[in-house]
Amino acid sequence: MKRLLKNGRVVDPASATDATLDILIEDGRIAAIEESIEPGKSEVIELEGLTVCPGFIDMHVHFREPGQEWKESVATGAAAAASGGFTAVACMPNTVPVMDNRALVEFVQAQAREAGMSRVWPIGAVTKGQDGKELAEIGDMNAAGAVAFSDDGRPIRSSQMMRMALEYSKIFGVPIIDHCEDPDLVAGGVVHEGWVSSRLGFKGWPGVAEDVIVARNILLSDYTGGHVHIAHMSTAGSMRLVREAKARGSRVTCEVTPHHLVLDHEAVMEFDTYTKMNPPLRAAEDLDGLLEGLADGTVDAIATDHAPHHCDEKCVEFSRAPFGVVGLETAVSICLDRLVHRDIISLSRMVELFSTGPAGVLGMDKGKLAVGAEADITVLDLDREVTVDADDFESKSENSPFLKWKLRGGPVMTMVDGRIIHDRR
Amino acid sequence: MKLSSRHLLGIDGMTAEEIALILDTAEGFVQISEREIKKVPTLRGKTVVNFFVEPSTRTRSSFELAEKRLSADALNFSANTSSFSKGESLLDTAKNLEAMSPDFIIIRHSEPGSPHFLARHIDAAIVNAGDGAHEHPTQALLDAFTIRKHKGRLDGLRVAIVGDINHSRVVRSNVLLLTLMGADVVVSGPPTLLPREFDAMGCRMTWKVEEALEGADVVMALRVQHERMNAGYFPTTREYALQFGINSTRLKLAKDDAIVMHPGPMNRGVELSGDLADGNRSVILEQVANGVAVRMAVLYLLAGEPARETTA
Ligand SMILES: [Zn+2]
Asked: Do B200 and A199 lie within an 8 Å CB cutoff?
């Protein structure tokens, strides 16, 4: 079956394209990208006024299956991804039990296949049970489809363990993704350590606790030649370290989340547990540092750290609430409204951060609109008026700090293998 | 004049006029506490629940006395005797409390923002009796009341607060209140116990205790909690007393008529020397007595229209 995407503005950073073009899809792959393609027998999808991008990739989500399906399942997570404009997501292994073996990697992939929504790429645990003591079967999980390895949810505490992981992962050419947090410096911290934590009487989570681990990881990456990827980077200090390391040629990459880019720690002053996440919302200077890294190319990917929690679990005292916010269904609108429409980054840069950027981190040939490539496509309406409403979420959870926000721009159609998996045109 | 909120969640958000109103109202209640029959029917028929999730004998007793003197029906609901200690969530416990239709809930809790949480979820008027290291508004009000009694004003006074600033709810409410009323507040303690960017609240901050005491009208020592003593914030209580303890030598730096305060409970000889605690510049016991009057004023004002005095 053939489909013709007609008259859309095609933005493809990989080929430096930004032009009105038609895209012909045949058997789930892109068959042609040209100025004007005759429809013939193909089904025509008229996209005039809309923006056609390579399928967006979110390389950091938590889908809670197996073990905590009341928060999210692979199926509802993948549906949330589709609704948010993502054609692929990489899901973290901090499930119950931990995804630290082939059987669970295959299980998650099977659940995703059954759901038939966005692609779900498992991230295997670095250590057995994410205990930080013994390496998990990284090779076997990689052969089964795990695209990267991480103990996310917690940091890799031991420098020796990090060194082993970086050495060993070289065999497979996969990144080690670290949640950078020095547990001794954080010890019970719930919000960014600064004037807000001091005023509210909360134990602070100091930015330097991230910086010291980022510095350690860069040094170990340089020493071993392994690829380290910094998850959800939140401080100006970390950004400086990564920028300097990249300039030296280090094998370090990093991601930032939409919430760390647009909210600072003042947002927690109402004690709203939907503003509680790890790492916490930082100071205004940190936001500036992150935005600078976004614009100057230091940042490789925008990732949501989609972390669903049931509203009952969040409806407790602030310091007792679990860390984490959902992000899949707000990320694109937040980035369009707050970054692109405010001229902090170009549209093409935003698309890059959602496509070739994360694909490059994961070493995958994805995130581009090229003849022969799988037809994974995200269509945006740059001017669509969006009001964030949990009732519209496909996710099982609603713990978003952006509820009721009015935003301009959002995803309107998501295609995987040429199949429309979400459509709100 | 009335208070703009039906809750007292913190000093944060209050105006100078509201604070003055509470302090002025408390003056009247001091007189009641000095009468032979220390009871007025102001809150007759009103139910007050004292919900103390964290134990605090003195604050609870003070509230209880205030409630009794206002003729309210008071109910104590403490953590160790309730299902709360059996893992029930704060929300469920609060809903159960609400089912008793209380007019007020006085809450003491270990977590910052707990009173705000209650105020969002249930209907009663909430009074914060201490939420973690966040706020303790009635303590700050009674401290201000005590200072005003001695100094006749708050505006322009130099107030030094010395001790474990990091873990103290008293200091946060005091800094907010005193700076709002025009006082010049300086907080002091070991750098390990000075919260980051705390001076953003409008006070000054120094680990040089002598600098803090210089020319002070009011010297307030804060309790060094036992659990901090072995947590590595400072080497020993002996060294703490040597470096930061308020004693008569250090007090000489303050004004000659400076008063000495402590919110209690006190570690004699650690943060404050015994001779000063018992000396004629100490107002510590007045603070306790004033606490009842201030809490009566708070409940009275939050109740809005006073219950009509009827002859039963
Ligand atoms: Zn993480």
From this structure: yes
